[in-house]
């Protein structure tokens, strides 16, 4: 089984940060453990190879101890362990996202137009995915399977926070009945201690949010990763130069979004309105 490229890249970043914290240049560090300069350079780029004993020696040079040392070495040993996303039918991009989500300690999303995938009900997800005319039934079902599997992380210890635009809460995806059930699901999942839902109203001053939907994944040992969705697909950003912009937008959203309680009351009110309009439509059709 090939090593996880995502995990190897994060491991390389963690080793680079440890070296820099130790005040060593790449060349001095390589000399300190008797390695070729290019070999250490490849390791920090996530290209390996990674040997637990050799990485242990490297951490010793960097004076990395305790929990941080244990976590880095555990990552080295787990590189060959396949994740569920490596199953047939999972696209490279979706597999990378699932890999990131699996290791994240905190995930924060900005969802201005649609309910994010981690919170979607099956009916809502099927309708949202079905908007793509290039997907056949088999493709849609495969993506649904992946989405449901990704949602399992919310049952763990990850801290999940989402800022929802009012449009996302009002957009009819599939039908009014599907939207009503989706809003009910949000009210239910919002009760979990590790999940925070907050609504951003259109009049809120959050101009940075015009960047569009994105999510920020944060980890213990490496820099945050930003998942940006656009018309061309998904892009992962992991350099401070690029992620800083999105972290700044999250700060804006945090300042202007409704509080948790107020947000849940608004979602409840919208659910009741949608249920009422759905009932009226059914009566009109009789």
Describe it.
With 286 residues, the chain is an alpha/beta fold. It has 2 domains: 5-77, 434 Repressor (Amino-terminal Domain) (Orthogonal Bundle); 84-285, 2-Layer Sandwich (Endonuclease, Chain A). The chain is built from 12 helices and 6 strands. A hairpin with a 2-residue loop joins strand 5 (225-230) and strand 6. The mean pLDDT is 87. GO terms for molecular function: DNA binding.
What's the CATH topology name of the largest domain?
Endonuclease, Chain A
Number of strands: 6
Low-confidence stretches: none
- Overall, the morphology is elongated
Rg (C-alpha, Å):
22 Å
CATH second-level architecture of the largest domain: 2-Layer Sandwich
What's the rounded overall pLDDT mean?
A: 87
Give the number of helices. 12
Q: Give the proportion of residues in helices.
A: 40-55%
Order of strands across the main sheet: 3-2-1-4-5-6
Pfam family, one: HTH_31
Protein name: HTH cro/C1-type domain-containing protein
Domain HTH cro/C1-type: 15-69
GO molecular function: DNA binding
